[in-house]
Amino acid sequence: MKLPKADLHVHPFLKPYGHSYYANNNEMDACSNASPWMKDEDTPADALLENAAGFAPYRQSDFTSCNEGNLKLIVNSFYPIEQGFLDLKSDLLDSIAGDTVANMITEFGKAWIATVKDPSFNYYTDLLKQMDFAARLQLKKPINGNSEYKLLTTGKDLSSEIGQGVLLVANSCEGAQVLCNGNDPSDAMQWAGVEDRIRFIKAHPARPFFITLAHHFYNGLCSHSESLFDLKNFILGQELGMQTLTKPYKDQPPLCDREITVIGYLVIEELLRSDNGAPVLIDVKHMSKLARLEFYKYRKERHPDLPIIYSHGATKKYYDFEINLDEEDIAEIYASNGIIGLEIDQRILGYNVKGKRFTKWFKNIFRKDAEQNMRWAECFWENLIHIAEVAYKSGSTTNPWQCICIGSDFDGIINPLNEFRTINKLEDLLTCLQRYLEEYWKRPGWVIPPNTYGEPSDIMYQIGYYNLVSFTEKNFV
Questions:
Q1: Span 186-210, mean pLDDT?
Q2: H or E element: which one contains 6?
Q3: Are the C-beta atoms of residues 25 and 19 closer than 8 Å to each other?
Q4: pTM of this prediction exceeds 0.85
Q5: Calpha distance 235→325 (Å, rounded)
């Protein structure tokens, strides 16, 4: 029997929502592109394109695959696409095939992409449409389907909810530009009334558990990390506000004298306060290192009891860019009783840094399945054990594994590990991780003593399922 599983960061609604813009797609039909239940099997041609171009042209976290993989809890991430993500460097390419290229990379559908590119596009309006889309399909068995999902508005009764056998979906938002009433978050006027918008989403049936404050582009709230590595040759760029706000950018003066702006602090405080609805926690993924440090200080001063979330990513030890966590970040998150979701992305995990990505893929296809799995799981294991060792060495006597879970980012714009391309393959990944942990404790040189807080199978149960369930039950109030 497969282990129960949970995932801190997935995007199962993005592609269905995008395809709901086509009138001939029935969102209530599990065989329709507009349904979150529609399963799109990856093919050998998909694998070839993925390994050549670095993006996945198939669905990874549809709810049918979630059921197949025995997922009990997922945290869906709403993402009103940033207009900058669709702004190509080549005006000629953009005018001739811009929507086609964007759809090829994202599979969001040309109709939604065209809507996002329209000058009248509004981030907050699109967020509400995504939230409404998720809410109106819950607890409804689709045509050609026999299962349901339920949106969580609190984690208080999570243990009993899980026992009912329905896929449970908590929600989050990636990028706080979703709270901007317009499409230019650098315009302070478009942030007017944000207090009312936050109060409204806190009361929504698809209300968010947490929000990622930053994303790919400057959003008027804080400095962000570089993230469009493989796409920066095509997209205009994300340099404005990247890494710091306190230095001049080209011929422009500094954007701010701090890494979190006045509006940024207003948004954070409105999200975290409880007299306008239950708190919405802050996810520090995509924030610059300097902005993270500023947020850690603010949290200790104003909200010391609230945990820090890093929903999807890996460590700088294996991919040395500030979008990933260094040892200081890991210790800070662990000390806050926070949680870190490990992302199943080749680049972020550091697999590509070792070079010859395409050659390694080609050679690996001739190995036995179990050996292939172990080779592809190695970079995930390296990041996992590094986080656990840093937590263990930080001096706390609590469980060093408890801050780690899966934050796959499936159906985000990622290049997943080849043998674990979809959410129903998490069982295979956890099997490999258990073998790596068994070997870690058999050999000399371990940092965490053998069987600390459980045997290898117990640890995988925690990482694959229990840690996130427990964290949600405690902190999604």
A1: 98
A2: strand 5-10
A3: yes
A4: yes
A5: 25
